[in-house]
Amino acid sequence: MNRHLCVWLFRHSFLHGHHQGHIHPPSRQFTQVHLNTRLWVFRQNRNHILHHLANKNWPKRYCHQHTKMFWKHKAVQKYMEDLNKEYQTLDQCLQHISVNQGDQRSLNQRHAELAPFAAIYQEIQEAEQAIEELESMCESLNEQNEKQLQELALEEKQTIGQKINVLYSKLFQNLVPKEKYDKNDVILEVTSGRTTGGDICQQFTREIFDMYQNYSGYKHWKFELLNYTPADYGGLHHAAARISGDNVYKHLKYEGGIHRVQRIPEVGLSSRMQRIHTGTMSVIVLPQPDEVDVKVDPKDLRIDTFRAKGAGGQHVNTTDSAVRLVHVPTGLVVECQQERSQIKNKEIALRVLRARLYQQIIEKDKCQQQSARKLQVGTRAQSERIRTYNFTQDRVTDHRIAYEVRDIKKFLCGEKCLDQLIQRLLQSADEEAIIEFLDENFKSTKC
């Protein structure tokens, strides 16, 4: 805090007092209740909020200005206080009450879950207390006609207000349900659509694949090419890559779907007409499992070998280096002819097959747990049209969140512009998760 403000606070010692809520000593009754009902306290408090918010017309999206309004609601404040009290009581329990090893593990787990929230909540409380002190200071300075100090106090108040907004955002992120697959690596596949004058689709597919390769470099991820089937005029029929790094699936999970292009073709047969053509290509994003997540029984596989096509010299056309894997129980088929070695192609094909089986497990799990859920970012189905690239208007439109970007060439570079859109998609998904979080639990209270 500014030195002048510190002097003023020292002279007005009545502003130093901070109201400290009394923390009741830990009791065995609380410990028993917490252990027997797991997250009972957490759920009951959450439902209490939903009861009070049920008749409120909250906006469908908690954009920046709505977020603070949401947290300022009395029911939400009560919920925050109860969570903080639970954390404080758990802290006391772990220090002073002896419990068996199983109970200790449960308490430690819950304590660790609440720790980040408690730290942010404490910062917010301290910042809001400082705001109250500065408001009192401004009133006193106004009476004393101390304009210079009053201006300093107002500047300090504004700075702390900005800090509180950041803390509310952190608190929001801390309470959003996390997906357990977010940290996984991915296998990204692109496939050209089939339309009259398919050149436009194939060229667009190559541009999109290059965009994701550039984005991987922008995010410092490892981009490993698994399959690449080129087309005429510099286009691309199909390609697949393994992308590994920090939170890859989290950032790319909403890129899966149908991407549409509208443009006047520059090359190929379609370019002779000089009119706007519409084409599509599809993106599939598969979270890459660990070995322990998906095990493929060799007895369930049918392996076919054949001669590869495309570039690669005489070796490609004279040896059966390409591999086709068929998973008999599910009917999934994977081909790979990227490498000159049949063994390497088999390894790559098996990796892609395991990723597709893993995707089926994830979708089944989500259908069971979230049968009624539809995020604002869409149903997340791979067949959903998610984005349009209009070259004649130099505009990219994401239909799920009505987000538009100008300058297509800059967007296709796969750097800051794409990252900004992905961050908006993640934010929108978080907002929908909070809405679902409240709605589902309110329904449970009514039942």
Automatic annotation (TrEMBL):
Coiled-coil stretches: 117-158
This protein's GO CC annotations: mitochondrion
SUPFAM superfamilies: Release factor
Annotated keywords: Coiled coil, Methylation, Protein biosynthesis
GO molecular function: translation release factor activity, codon specific
SMART domains xref list: PCRF
InterPro entries per record: PCRF, Pep_chain_release_fac_I, Pep_chain_release_fac_I_sf, Prokaryotic/Mito_RF
Superkingdom field: Eukaryota
One annotated GO biological process: mitochondrial translational termination
Name of a matching Pfam family: RF-1
PANTHER family, per database record: LD18447P (PTHR43804), PEPTIDE CHAIN RELEASE FACTOR 1, MITOCHONDRIAL (PTHR43804:SF1)
Family of this protein: Belongs to the prokaryotic/mitochondrial release factor family.
Protein's name according to its UniProt entry: Mitochondrial translation release factor 1
Organism: Molossus molossus
